[in-house]
Amino acid sequence: MEINDIIKPENKVYGKSPVLKDAVMHYCPGCSHGTVHKIIAEVIEEMDIQDKTIGISPVGCSVFAYNYLEIDWQQAAHGRAPALATATKRLMPDKYVFTYQGDGDLASIGTAEIMHACNRGENIVVIFINNAIYGMTGGQMAPTTLLGQVTATTPYGRDAKLNGFPLKITELIAQLEGTCYVTRQSVQNPAAVRKTKRAIRKAFENSMMDKGTSFIEVVSTCNSGWKLSPVAANTWMEENMFPFYPLGDIKDR
């Protein structure tokens, strides 16, 4: 059999989305960011909205997203992505506008911006990566760090009396009248990836229907910050994070 007999459209199993740039990702092996980037690229390609999509990337690992997705991007100061997304969507309502934020960004310095944008019901998509740590700046405790979890700033584990309790920001967001779709997903296996992809597509579709804000939390790993191998990090996430941050739709209006 000749090689040309194999390389045919009908034999194609998988192809990289043209929305993904030809750039080697800098993320650590096992990092969830790369998988979520791929999902977003595939959704944009399938919806044929590459020239209509604007991403907002604030400080953090998410700030590098523009290196990998071939769409229009704007950068925001730490935590301010929802404010910039609000202005962008209001000025250009025909665009698909989304923010891509980590837990240290969205659930800490950006708490005011995300709460008020969601309460106003801005027609944007928020993709929230929750790996329970400041993965970009040294592995410090984040608002979402679990009780007892060891980080660079909680070497003996997070203590509620000293550090407060983990913040379930997604449940708070779901209570706001301006949100139409709030869900918590993950990307640790193929089935989870498919569910997250469906959620992101639904969120993009919602953004053009004047239904309000769609909010997608992706419970993720940070194996380097957690000091675990990629496989062990997935296991730790399933055993420790999923019980506290249960997966599934929280609100679908």
How are the elements arranged and paired?
Blueprint: H1 3-6, H2 32-47, E1 53-57, E2 72-75, H3 81-91, E3 96-102, H4 103-109, H5 111-120, E4 125-130, H6 160-163, H7 169-174, E5 179-186, H8 190-207, E6 213-219, H9 223-226, H10 230-244, E7 248-252
Helix pairs in contact: 2-8, 4-5
Short description:
The protein has 253 residues and is an alpha/beta fold. It contains ten helices and seven strands. It has a single domain, classed as Rossmann fold (3-Layer(aba) Sandwich), CATH 3.40.50.
What would you note in describing this structure?
The mean pLDDT is 93. Strand 5 (179-186), helix 8 (190-207) and strand 6 (213-219) form a beta-alpha-beta unit. The chain has helices at residues 3-6, 32-47, 81-91, 103-109, 111-120, 160-163, 169-174, 190-207, 223-226, 230-244; strands at 53-57, 72-75, 96-102, 125-130, 179-186, 213-219, 248-252. The radius of gyration is 18 Å and the shape is globular. It contains 10 helices and 7 strands. The chain has a single domain, classed as 3-Layer(aba) Sandwich (Rossmann fold). The chain has 253 residues and is α/β, with parallel strands linked by helices. The protein starts with a helix and ends with a strand. Strands 2-1-3-4-6-5-7 form a 7-stranded mixed β-sheet, with helices on both faces.
